[in-house]
Design brief:
The chain has two domains: 8-130, no CATH class; 138-232, Homeodomain-like (Arc Repressor Mutant, subunit A), CATH 1.10.10. Helices cover 44% and strands 12% of the residues. It is built from ten helices and six strands, in the order E-E-E-E-E-H-E-H-H-H-H-H-H-H-H-H. Strand 1 and strand 2 form a beta hairpin. The protein has helices at residues 78-82, 102-114, 118-130, 138-148, 153-160, 164-175, 179-195, 201-207, 213-224, 228-232; strands at 8-11, 18-23, 39-43, 48-51, 67-73, 93-95.
């Protein structure tokens, strides 16, 4: 398994986003990128690519020495910036030039290419492009907050005053999938965060809303494509 030891990230000044960069420094297959409810704008050595919301693990094909930088947007915030409903990009990697005018993308790409800090350059582009847009919908953030805390879809819909069908429709446009799928993905992220602290897998399952450890294991295999132990590099 490859080491992504060239990976760094930091919080962004763009509304809850994270900016990151990675240089592949070892041979072998890289660790998969797991579903997290987010979308990314990625610079790949002269290209700007949008990574849509994933429903399963994605393993990038990155040769040793490849350099990649990106801004990972908070769930639900990228579609307004990009002008594309999230479900149209679900499980896809799309050139930004397929979404925006080629001349504009070419200018942006050249700016990131020339930047000493490509994370900062992507962050600046996001801030610039968001100027004049309406603020992020607070209802969408409340949906993420409630589901991330383990709330049910029905309870979340009641709390924010939306019919479940309306919530589903808005979730497709904002997150790329319905609230049930988003809840599964956010629960997976809660479990990974707990397990990374050294919590046993059985206790992790109990703390993060799984029926038992077997349920946790099935969900990790389905969403991450590998056992939890392999993903974290430790035994149960």
């Amino acid at each position: 398994m490859a080491e992504d030891s060239g990976y760094r990230e930091r919080p962004s000044r763009f509304g809850g986003a994270v900016v990151w960069e990675r240089t592949m420094v070892a041979t072998g297959a890289p660790m998969p990128v797991l579903p997290d409810g987010c979308m990314d704008l990625i610079w790949r050595e002269g290209r700007l690519v949008v990574a849509g919301p994933d429903t399963a693990a994605y393993t990038p094909a990155l040769p040793v020495g490849s350099r990649v930088a990106g801004i990972r947007f908070y769930p639900g915030t990228a579609p307004a910036l990009l002008g594309v409903p999230a479900h149209e990009l679900r499980d896809r990697r799309v050139d930004l030039a397929d979404l925006w005018p080629a001349a504009r993308v070419r200018e942006f790409t050249e700016r990131v290419d020339a930047a000493a800090d490509r994370r900062a350059a992507l962050e600046a582009l996001a801030v610039e492009c968001a100027a004049g847009l309406a603020p992020p919908d607070p209802v969408l953030r409340e949906v993420v907050r409630a589901l991330a805390a383990g709330g049910s879809v029905a309870a979340t819909a009641r709390a924010i005053g939306l019919d479940v069908r309306v919530l589903h429709r808005r979730s497709l446009a904002a997150f790329g999938y319905g609230p049930k799928t988003l809840a599964r993905i956010l629960r997976l992220q809660r479990a990974l965060a707990a397990a990374r602290t050294g919590t046993s897998f059985a206790e992790t399952a109990a703390l993060t809303g799984f029926a038992d450890q077997a349920h946790l294991s099935r969900e990790v295999r389905e969403l991450a494509g590998m056992p939890l132990g392999a993903l974290l590099g430790r035994a149960a």
